[in-house]
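Before a colleague's protein record goes any further, I have to sign it off. My question to you is simply how this chain folds and whether the tokens agree. I do not need a full report, just your reasoning and any doubts. This is what I was given:
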Amino acid sequence: MGDFPPTPYFIGLNAPVGTELALEGLPVEGTLPPEVRGAFFRAVPDPAFAPKFADDHTLSGDGMISRVRFNADGTADYAIRFVETARHQAEKAAGRARFGRYRNPFTDDPDMAGVDRTVANTTPVWHAGRLLMTKEDGRPYRIDPHTLDTLGSFDFDGLLKSETMTAHVRIDPDSGDLYFYGYEADGLASTKVAYARVGADGALKSEQWFDAPYCAMMHDFTISRNWALFPVYPTTAELERMKAGGEHWHHEQGLESWLGVMPRDGDVKDIKWFQGPKGVYCYHMMNAWEDAEGLLHFDQCLSSSNAFAFIREPAGLFLQPWEITGGLTRWTVDPRGPAGPVTETVIGPPGDFPIIPAKSQGRPYKTGWMLTMNPDRRGPPVMGGPVLGMFDMLVRLDGMDTASPQITQALPMEPGWCYNEPVHVASATPGHDGWLVTMVDHQIGEDAFEHFAWVIDAGNLGAGPVATVQIPTRLRPQVHGWWVPQAQLDAVRAGVTA
């Protein structure tokens, strides 16, 4: 695969793999719950060629769509394929990397100008019978969920005007409508944000544009029953810096954050900007919800600075991991009152990858799960992922609809083990909290790892996995995943859903 630089982004668990394969009939240890029949899709960045610049990092990797399928006979299948983006095809044709620094086209080979450079490596999104591989710097690529073939770049039948679509979407549990946005919607370093709604039938119903307070990396957002929330944190872009060959993103520690709030199905002209603290950053939000008094609560995994060293350090922010503080944090605003500062409350531990049941999206909710670091860990965490440290404890929080949620359950890992982001699978049993499906990695040597899919009872974390599947091949850490029930996959095969 070429000579990759020996940096933490390309060694150990982060070592490139780049292998397409399909494995069928993998044995399952334990008992698969009846609801866990379907496909766990995962987005895996994996560079096909050594980068042009030695200081490149994980998030530049070519997108691979991975699928763990749980079968009716109690076995599992595993498959992984490259997303055949225009970028990947151009590099395959040349047999080398042709695109330069992360999200900076001015550092590409000159003849690559105008080629779609997204790697589609962040989140598999399932809606209205379509599987999309997304990354926020471009439009998504559509994937056949059965064959994993790439069907091409997707723009909602020519209706989407934004040049970008976020890697994170929100689906209303009642209407089935999908909400998304794209920042830098009309080009590099732009303040333009496109806000869109897709009906349950998969058709784009609306697209509205507004200006953010400044051009920022807007990785995630949320909706409540009545509102859409757009957080803006001070990781910023400058066009002249990119033209000079610099990094797309710098984090500005002295700049304020903002929370834009607008009626969810209303007009962007009614957006209000509430001011947050300086220098903070959040990649992922757990939920947003309204209480009985109409106050809007926004629950997020907030840090005192950007968690990615490759974004902080070009801006002169050289911080050790333990110098970055934070936790699950709630910002509260009155969306019907005048804009002002947010009210901030820390409600949970530091960590990331928050999870809620799909039915709780945008609603008052009682329970959530997230990944964190085991405070009793013996030794360093497994090195891997874009932050260069993998999470080793899964926790459950209850009382999320109160002022003081509490950790009620935990599943810590033994040394050398770590989690990737879980997905939630609903239970058919009334009162049961469902299941969490996750990939876990186990380091068994300096550069040796084994990998498993775990199924965990979401209401009994301490019992450990109820079913495990070993994946007998080398894996790279995922970014995000999505669960699709078998009935929905079968409906698409039968032509029931578009």
